[in-house]
Q: What sequence folds into this?
């Protein structure tokens, strides 16, 4: 009986491997109408039901059967279908969709990841970040007595003040990480004194960055602010 199960398992694995070998990998990049902006979040579909999406830089990769066709979908609009067997082997299938994207050129900035600094900071000050005043519940169901405030009010205030300061510093570091000079310079083209003034004037708050739905919304804020600031800067600092 055991040999019988092993034989069945072998047949199943053999069938799966044959199906995998019979598939074709199709990959490429999806752009907007101008063929300049890469488009993230585009659905890449096969007529057999397989599917994937383009990543943050518009790249995709999907494995399809030779008898399948591939097509693209964005905002409910579909492209024509392309037969996989007619695609040139090893040649990327790049696609330009009839969509105008108010977006930004690709910006890749890789400073030290903020979450590592945050983790180290919280590990170092764990006692303060996790600090909560102790309460002694009253017998009649009342709110209770704060033991720290009762026996060491000054120490309690110092701990809570330090906790708030550390949280503010952590948020400032997060803003510094996201709104850094290298990124802003790549997006706006500003440099020198103009860049320094822009960084101070248009520095976003922690809450603003958190409320941005994605990186493109945040980058668009920098781009639009940079355009407005550049016009004002040229008026105030005309070249001779």
A:
């Amino acid at each position: 009986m055991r040999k019988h199960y092993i034989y069945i398992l072998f047949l199943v694995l053999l069938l799966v491997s044959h199906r995998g070998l019979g598939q074709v990998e199709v990959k490429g990049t999806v752009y907007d109408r101008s063929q300049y902006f890469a488009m993230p979040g585009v659905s890449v579909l096969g007529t057999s039901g397989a599917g994937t999406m383009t990543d943050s830089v518009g790249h995709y990769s999907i494995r399809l059967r030779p008898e399948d066709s591939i097509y693209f979908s964005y905002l409910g609009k579909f492209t024509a279908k392309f037969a996989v067997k007619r695609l040139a082997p090893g040649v990327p299938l790049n696609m330009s969709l009839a969509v105008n994207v108010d977006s930004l050129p690709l910006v890749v900035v890789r400073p030290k990841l903020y979450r590592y600094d945050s983790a180290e900071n919280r590990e170092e000050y764990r006692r303060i970040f996790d600090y909560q005043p102790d309460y002694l519940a009253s017998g009649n169901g009342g709110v209770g007595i704060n033991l720290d405030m009762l026996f060491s009010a000054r120490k309690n205030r110092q701990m809570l003040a330090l906790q708030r300061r550390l949280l503010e510093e952590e948020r400032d570091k997060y803003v510094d990480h996201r709104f850094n000079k290298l990124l802003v310079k790549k997006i706006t083209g500003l440099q020198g004194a103009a860049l320094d003034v822009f960084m101070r004037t248009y520095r976003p708050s922690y809450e603003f960055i958190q409320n941005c739905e994605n990186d493109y919304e945040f980058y668009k804020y920098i781009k639009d602010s940079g355009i407005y600031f550049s016009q004002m800067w040229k008026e105030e600092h005309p070249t001779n």
Observations:
- The chain has three domains: 2-96, 114-178, 183-240.
- The first strand starts at residue 24 and ends at 31.
- Strands lie at 24-31, 43-46, 51-53, 59-64, 69-74, 77-78, 82-83, 95-96, 135-136, 145-146.
- Residues 16-20, 103-112 have pLDDT under 50 and may be disordered.
